[in-house]
């Protein structure tokens, strides 16, 4: 047992500076982030994040579940983008199994992932603006988010904890009018982005609160492991969807928004432009949606259809075997990364050849992004810390797991 | 899509920029290699992990400048028990490589890579917290997820899923 000291405290220079504890219940820390700030008047001298308040031991729990039982756990990691987590885990296990996923399932996965990105960015935009004092945007964003959540409910039966992707494909055929409903949403959505931008992009108060605030240079961003919009806003042009494509993203045409300034405003611009690009990808996915099955041809891994299970003996046996014994996965290890709304979401899955994963590790984009906070905020005002936290879009469920 | 056989012969893998870099600059660092599922794994000698990481980060043709992840796997009761795993990414060349260091059960410790990538800070703290592996030269090696007075390291395989009661 290594030697440990109690709650970390700074050895602050008591004559000049003081310690300010921010969180874990502070409304602008988006959950339960605790920051210890060493301040000199209004200026932040040092900053130290203290996390772990939401640690639930999901990685340990995964080791005691069958492969298919892990999918619902992945929802709970990042509650703003459950489908992205579902996808990443499924891709990792499918890679271990060597499964080929039918095109329709891949396209639906892309479609739903982009809707998830829209959903997540809307929550980010609303709460980020609210933190800085722009109340209206919050209400506008949650209006559209409600539409996206209704789409999730239609397709998976759940608004937030969707668990819709399965190893080998999708859980269910989407309802008949689903694509029409998405089309209706995609037609209306770009005008809504204009509405948000009208409220913020040229707003002088918004610009004063965000421009030049919490700057992060490209070198620092890479060295600190930042990814996603936090990295791209610092001028590094890297997006996993384009550069290391997965799930047929290479068949879609979209731009990767990059900004050079590395401040809160640049991160805001990147994400708002990403909303437009996601909307474009949704359009393309709707237009070119292939026909065919939604599950891979692998009876030992993929649950049979209900109808088949009730009429064919073989399907019933497979169904029973998968439910009671799971399916074994060849020994090996894979690291699969996807571009989540927050950055590089990676799953490292190790199999020892049994029906339960030997180890599942999630590379949380936010955990690395949070490390950039001291680089952004030290030497700046306390009020800017709130803007900086909002701009890296943290989700504590993912950080703590 | 059928599974391709694993390649473990280093000679066949020398085209990969990470292998080329290490064979040129630090020939003794690679213990073994394996290539499976389109992913390259290099087993690195424990004492040279920091130097290896610095070499790969600054390798001009393909700089592995981004540390994606640091984690660990416990192979209890096998020996060597722990594998510390680093996932590196080259943003420019879009290549990945996985480095592994094997550690024994007795007081597992290795050099921290925080001097190479500050990003390793939280990742290594997490591995220390959940596996009890010490990173020498880490600036602030304290528990990160579990409470400070917690006993044991939960992700070790000999730690029960429901905890000690």
Topology:
The complex is a heterodimer of chains A (401) and B (165).
Chain A: E1 18-22, E2 34-40, E3 43-50, H1 58-62, H2 71-75, H3 82-97, H4 103-132, H5 135-156, E4 165-166, E5 169-170, H6 178-200, H7 204-210, H8 218-223, H9 229-232, H10 240-243, H11 264-287, H12 306-311, H13 313-325, E6 332-340, E7 343-351, E8 359-363, H14 365-370, H15 372-377, H16 382-392, H17 396-400
Antiparallel strand pairs in A: 1-2, 2-3, 4-5, 6-7, 7-8
Chain B: H1 17-25, E1 30-36, E2 39-44, H2 49-57, E3 66-74, E4 82-90, E5 95-103, E6 109-111, H3 120-131, E7 134-136
Parallel strand pairs in B: 2-5, 6-7
Antiparallel strand pairs in B: 1-2, 3-4, 4-5
Question: What features would you describe in this structure?
Answer:
The complex is a heterodimer of chains A (401) and B (165). Chain A is globular, with a radius of gyration of 22 Å. Chain A has a 3-stranded antiparallel β-sheet with strand order 1-2-3. With 401 residues, chain A is mostly helical. Chain A has a single domain (67-400), classed as Cytochrome-c3 Hydrogenase, chain B. Chain A has helices spanning 58-62, 71-75, 82-97, 103-132, 135-156, 178-200, 204-210, 218-223, 229-232, 240-243, 264-287, 306-311, 313-325, 365-370, 372-377, 382-392, 396-400, and strands spanning 18-22, 34-40, 43-50, 165-166, 169-170, 332-340, 343-351, 359-363. Chain A is built from 17 helices and 8 strands. The longest helix of chain A is centred in the first third of the chain and has 30 residues, at 103-132. The model of chain A is unreliable at 1-9 (pLDDT under 50). Chain B is of the alpha/beta class. Chain B has a single domain, classed as Beta Polymerase, domain 2. Chain B is 18% helix and 28% strand. Chain B is built from 3 helices and 7 strands, in the order αββαββββαβ. Chain B has helices at 17-25, 49-57, 120-131, and strands at 30-36, 39-44, 66-74, 82-90, 95-103, 109-111, 134-136. The longest helix of chain B has 12 residues, at 120-131. Chain B is globular, with a radius of gyration of 17 Å.
């Amino acid at each position: 047992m290594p030697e440990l000291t109690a709650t970390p405290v700074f050895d602050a220079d008591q004559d000049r500076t003081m310690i300010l504890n921010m969180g874990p219940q502070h409304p602008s820390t988006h959950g339960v982030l605790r920051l210890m700030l060493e301040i000199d008047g209004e200026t932040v001298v040092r900053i130290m994040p203290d996390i772990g308040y939401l640690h639930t031991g999901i990685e340990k729990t995964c080791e005691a579940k069958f492969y298919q039982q892990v999918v619902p756990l992945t929802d709970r990691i990042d509650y703003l983008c459950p489908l992205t987590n579902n996808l990443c885990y499924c891709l990792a296990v499918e890679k271990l199994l060597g499964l080929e996923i039918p095109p329709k399932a891949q396209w639906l996965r892309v479609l739903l992932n982009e809707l998830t990105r829209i959903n997540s960015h809307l929550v980010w935009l609303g709460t980020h603006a609210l933190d800085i004092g722009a109340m209206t945007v919050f209400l506008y964003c949650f209006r559209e988010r409600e539409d996206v959540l209704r789409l999730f409910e239609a397709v998976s039966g759940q608004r937030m904890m969707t668990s819709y992707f399965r190893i080998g494909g999708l859980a269910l055929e989407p309802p008949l009018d689903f694509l029409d409903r998405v089309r209706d949403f995609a037609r209306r959505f770009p005008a809504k982005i204009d509405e948000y931008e009208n409220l913020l992009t040229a707003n002088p108060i918004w610009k004063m609160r965000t421009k030049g605030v919490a700057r992060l240079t490209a070198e620092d961003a890479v060295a600190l492991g930042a990814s996603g919009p936090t990295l791209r806003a610092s001028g590094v042009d890297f997006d996993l969807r384009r550069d290391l494509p997965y799930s047929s993203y290479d068949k879609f045409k979209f731009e990767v928004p990059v900004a050079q300034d590395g401040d809160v405003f640049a991160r805001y611009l990147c994400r708002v432009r990403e909303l437009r690009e996601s909307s474009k990808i949704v359009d393309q996915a709707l237009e070119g949606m292939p026909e065919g099955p939604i599950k891979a041809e692998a009876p030992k891994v993929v649950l049979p259809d209900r109808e088949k299970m009730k009429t064919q003996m073989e399907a019933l046996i497979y169904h029973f075997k998968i439910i009671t014994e799971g399916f074994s996965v060849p020994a090996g290890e894979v690291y699969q990364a996807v571009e989540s709304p927050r950055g590089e979401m990676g799953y490292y899955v190790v199999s020892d050849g049994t029906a339960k994963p030997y180890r599942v590790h999630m590379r949380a984009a936010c955990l690395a992004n949070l490390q950039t906070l001291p680089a952004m905020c030290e030497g700046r005002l306390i009020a800017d810390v709130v803007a900086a936290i909002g701009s890296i879009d943290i989700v504590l469920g993912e950080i703590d797991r | 899509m059928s599974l391709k056989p694993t390649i473990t012969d280093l000679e066949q893998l020398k085209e990969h920029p990470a292998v080329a870099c290490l064979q040129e600059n630090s020939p003794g660092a690679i213990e073994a290699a394996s290539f499976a599922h389109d992913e390259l794994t290099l087993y690195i000698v424990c004492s040279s992990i920091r130097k290896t990481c610095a070499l790969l980060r600054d390798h001009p043709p393909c700089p592995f400048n981004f540390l994606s992840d640091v984690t660990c796997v416990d192979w209890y009761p096998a020996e060597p028990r722990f594998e510390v795993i680093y996932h590196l990414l080259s943003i420019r060349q879009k290549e990945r490589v996985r480095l592994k260091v094997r550690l024994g059960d007795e007081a597992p410790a290795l050099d921290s890579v925080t001097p190479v990538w500050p990003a390793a800070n939280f990742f290594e703290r997490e591995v220390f917290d959940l596996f009890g592996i010490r990173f020498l030269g880490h600036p602030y090696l304290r528990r990160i997820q579990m409470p400070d007075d917690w006993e044991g390291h939960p992700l070790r395989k000999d730690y029960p899923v429901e905890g000690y009661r």
